[in-house]
UniProtKB/TrEMBL annotation:
The keyword RNA-binding does not apply. The active site is at 367 (for fru-6p isomerization activity). The gene is glmS. Catalyzes the first step in hexosamine metabolism, converting fructose-6P into glucosamine-6P using glutamine as a nitrogen source. Keywords: Aminotransferase, Cytoplasm, Glutamine amidotransferase, Repeat, Transferase. It comes from Paraoerskovia sediminicola. It is found in: Cytoplasm. Its EC number is 2.6.1.16. It comes from the Bacteria. This is Glutamine--fructose-6-phosphate aminotransferase [isomerizing]. Residues 44-184, 217-362 form the SIS domain. The lineage of its organism: Bacteria, Bacillati, Actinomycetota, Actinomycetes, Micrococcales. It catalyses: D-fructose 6-phosphate + L-glutamine = D-glucosamine 6-phosphate + L-glutamate. One of its GO terms (molecular function) is transaminase activity. The keyword DNA damage does not apply.
């Protein structure tokens, strides 16, 4: 087993370090000689993909947060409405699904029972299903109209890490492919976005190399009883994923919030010393996202929060309000989840280790939930 872990203390640690390659491999071989994006395994007719009027992403757990991230990108690039729904909620609520609905099922294992049942239900209603799957030969791709494989390699640790980044990457590829097919973006715009994606493995590597500071912070917080996570836009699902990782691995109460919801309740939770992670978008974005998040940090800091801020290199605006800063390389906002998630994974892992817990096999959890 020690050899399988490649010298790392746990599979999770190894899989966190596998992430640059997982993302890189998921991007490999996706363009033809003219640089046009092609998704080989997409056996759905182009005319059908041109006519869809809605996308529903179905998934469970971490894969569902990948879907939430993808929604921001796909709607922005393709101007198709995207809903994201937990597979077990979708199945039991009589969802509106037609021949013009594209269902995207995201699953690492390809075996999650609720996701499989949701796929069957969608197809019975006449929808086309594309699955984004990591495990070759699993059930869900066999029951889908088409499959887009993430090439993360086997993920052994129960808590998902490299599968998550690869799922976001694959869903972005699908978004760009649809934008190309439906003429929402010019070829040079697609090329620019593909170049940004291809540059991500190198930047993910940089974030991993800065992991020791995150680990030290986590060790100093091993007695925390509650940690909150805030984000806006794509930072919101990243916050939810950060909270999920901490629950799964360290058995600490954790919640992710949309930063804009603070005033509608969560701010009542803030008292002296309450740790709060905040995912800060790029200050170079064209909208006011960044300044909104900076004011959210100010608000919680003024009420005593201990602020743990994930921000872009050189973002001086956050310095006065941050107790700790975890820097990530500059990238456009839509690409930031591929970086900002990494410190949150390392934090949860290191805190669980400091508590003496088994990070690969947390209590009560299974890698793949194949029962209802
Ligand atoms: C379990 C795992 C999670 C995973 C979820 C969905 O709960 O512990 O890490 O996100 O199942 O699994 P899937 O294989 O469908 O991605």
């Amino acid at each position: 087993a020690a050899a399988e872990k490649g010298g790392f203390a746990s599979f999770m640690d190894k899989e966190i370090h596998d992430q640059p390659q997982a993302v890189g491999d998921t991007l490999l071989g996706r363009t033809d000689v003219d640089g046009r994006l092609m998704l080989d395994d997409l056996r759905i007719e182009e005319s059908v993909l041109r006519s869809i009027d809605k996308i529903i992403v179905i998934a469970c757990g971490t894969a569902a947060y990948a879907g939430h991230v993808a929604k921001y990108a796909i709607e922005h690039w393709c101007r198709i409405p995207v809903e994201v729904e937990l597979a077990h909620e979708f199945r039991y609520r009589d969802p509106i699904v037609t021949e013009k609905t594209l269902v995207v099922a995201i699953t690492q294992s390809g075996e999650t029972m609720d996701t499989l049942m949701a796929v069957r239900h969608a197809r019975e209603q006449g929808a086309k299903v594309i699955s984004i799957v990591n495990t070759n030969g699993s059930t869900i791709p066999r029951e889908s109209d088409a499959v887009l494989y993430t090439h993360a390699g086997p993920e052994i640790a129960v808590a998902s890490t490299k599968a998550f980044l690869s799922q976001i990457t694959a869903a972005y590829l699908l978004g760009l492919y649809l934008a190309q097919l439906r003429g929402n973006k010019f070829p040079d715009e697609i090329n620019t976005l593909m170049d940004e994606l291809r540059d991500m493995p190198r930047k993910i590597q940089t974030v991993i190399e800065r992991g020791e500071y995150v680990r030290a912070t986590a060790r100093s917080m091993k007695d925390a009883s509650s940690v909150l996570f805030l984000g806006r836009h794509v930072g919101f699902p990243v916050a939810m994923e950060g909270a999920l990782k901490l629950k799964e691995l360290a058995y600490i109460h954790a919640e992710g919030f949309a930063a804009g919801e603070l005033k509608h309740g969560p701010i009542a939770l803030i008292d002296e010393g309450q740790p709060v992670f905040v995912v800060v978008p790029s200050p170079r974005g064209r909208d006011s996202l960044h300044s909104k998040v900076v004011s959210n940090i100010q608000e919680i800091r003024a009420r005593g929060a201990r602020t743990l801020v994930i921000a872009e290199d050189g973002d001086d605006a956050v310095r006065p309000y941050a107790d700790e800063i975890f820097w990530v390389p500059p990238v456009p906002t839509l690409m930031q989840p591929l970086l900002a998630t990494v410190p949150l994974q390392i934090f949860a892992m290191a805190l669980a280790e400091a508590k003496g817990l088994d990070v690969d096999q947390p209590r009560n959890l299974a890698k793949s939930v194949t029962v209802e």
